[in-house]
Amino acid sequence: MKMVDYKKCPKYWNRNTDFMEIKRNILLNPGPATTTDTVKYAQVVPDICPREKEFGLLTESVCRDLVKIAGGDEENYVCILFGGSGTAGMDAVINSVTPPGKKILIINNGAYGKRMVEIAKAYAVAPVELTFDQATLPRVKDVESALRNDPEIACVAIVHHETTTGLLNPVREIGEMAKQYDKVFIVDAISSFAGIPADIKKYDIDFMMSTSNKCIQGMAGVCFVICDKHELEKLKDYPKRSFYLDLYSQYDFFLKSGQMQFTPPVQTIYALRRAIDEFLQEGAENRYERYRKSWETLRNGITEMGFRILTNPTEESNLLITILYPEDPDFDFEIMHDRLYEKGFTIYPGKVGKLKSFRLAVLGAVDHHDINNFLCVFKDILKEMRVRGLTIEN
Ligand SMILES: Cc1ncc(COP(=O)(O)O)c(C=O)c1O
User: Fold this and answer.
1) What are phi and psi of 186, to 5 degrees?
2) Fewer CB atoms inside 10 A, N or C side of the chain?
3) Could you tell me whether strands 357-361 and 348-349 are parallel, antiparallel, or unpaired per DSSP bridges?
4) Cα 196 from Cα 159, distance rounded (Å)
């Protein structure tokens, strides 16, 4: 679908692809991720009022497909969109789902688990924080003893892919435990949705949040929560803790009007529609395999260069690695970042306490060829910088 006539810009007009090419940057930060040009151009649409039926139908189709991608069915699950980043989705779930007077058990083995605790505290929702070392997976038996010891806990929340480190948390096992104790199960799948298999039914998830700009490969600005309808209906009678980010109000408004309550990021939703189409065209299995192959290429290349990686490959998401600084006191992340940035590659600092590390992620419209190109450029830059303690020949 061609929406804009760029033929007036012959310098940039590409006759093969039928649209203006945009400089391709490879984002190795864990989202917002590299997008296809077709997703970028999907934002260029005639102006439309989001209160028009046409836009409501578009939004509805986006929600329906997001439910399907999560492994849900229309009868039992529904998707609620909010304008905002992933944190808005976390906020909406944490503030809306815990029943009054009850507690929420939050598993924290990284910055995003910690963020859920902070959100709960901000709304005076009593969190029970179960903290694990950032380089280790949460232990299911510890979750069980927390649930056994405190009957006031009504909900259990965990991050699927802890983007702080690249660990893939045992969501399925913890979901089983949560259900054994009859708790509401919440999963932050913000950096894993559409990038790693996670079936909302099989994993016993009641509320799953994600965002438009990570593995689904859309633009930043929309977050979404896929909800079990039965659990969602219970929220109707809970006191509202937020005006804007209230899950039930947003659901109810859409149900009655086919519109989002407040002005949505219109163009981002068009881009999300296109990103979903591209996901469906690629196929879930092919997307997982593309990411896995990029991760494997990256991990092998980085290890061969002599870097150490924080986590164990069997516990990783296949989407991101945390790399420890080499043993060279002169190693400078900022210089390395800036040189790579000039060449079109964006790398990302680490987030694990005082540990000196940086992160590389493979989510987005990139493949193992891009990763091989990155590794060549990276090696050359490290050689120019004369970084010691690696196995690259100087
Ligand atoms: C697991 C996880 N949760 C939450 C967030 C927060 O999302 P945002 O930065 O879009 O608010 C991120 C962001 O990277 C994330 O990776």
Assistant:
1) -115, 130
2) N
3) antiparallel
4) 13
Summarised one tens digit per residue, pLDDT across range 192-251 is: 999 999 899 999 999 999 999 999 999 999 999 999 999 999 999 999 999 999 999 999
CA of 159 to the centre of ligand 1 (A): 10
Q: How far, CA to CA in Å, does 17 sit from each of 33, 282, 284?
A: 22, 18, 25
Residue for token digits 């913000």?
190
What are the sequence ranges of the domains in the chain? Answer: 53-279
Query: Is the domain 53-279 a CATH 3.40.50.1820 member?
Result: no
Q: State residue 360's pLDDT score.
A: 98
Cα 26 off chain centre by: 17
Residue 239 CA, distance from chain mean position: 29
Q: CB of 105 closer than 6 A to ligand 1?
A: no
Mean pLDDT, the chain, whole residue set: 94
CA of 32 to the centre of ligand 1 (A): 10
Task: Collect contacts of 279-288 with beta carbons under 8 A, ≥24 apart.
Answer: 279/69, 279/194, 279/216, 279/217, 280/65, 284/69, 284/194, 284/197, 287/194, 287/195, 287/215, 288/195, 288/196, 288/197, 288/318
Q: What is the rounded CA–CA span in Å between residue 120 and residue 140?
A: 22
Nearest C-alpha to atom 7 of ligand 1 is from which residue? Answer: 86
Answer yes or no: are the C-beta atoms of 234 and 205 closer than 8 Å.
no
Q: Which of 134, 190, 207, 225 to mutate to test the pocket of ligand 1 (most atoms within 8 A of CB)?
A: 190
15-69 pLDDT, tens digit per residue, is: 555 667 789 999 999 999 999 999 999 999 999 999 999 999 999 999 999 999 9
Question: Cα separation of 331 and 344, whole Å?
Answer: 21
Counting atoms of ligand 1 from 1, which one is nearest the CA of 87? Answer: 11
pLDDT in tens, 124-164: 999 999 999 999 999 999 999 999 999 999 999 999 999 99
Region of residue 210 (left: phi > 0; alpha: psi -120 to 50; beta: else)? beta
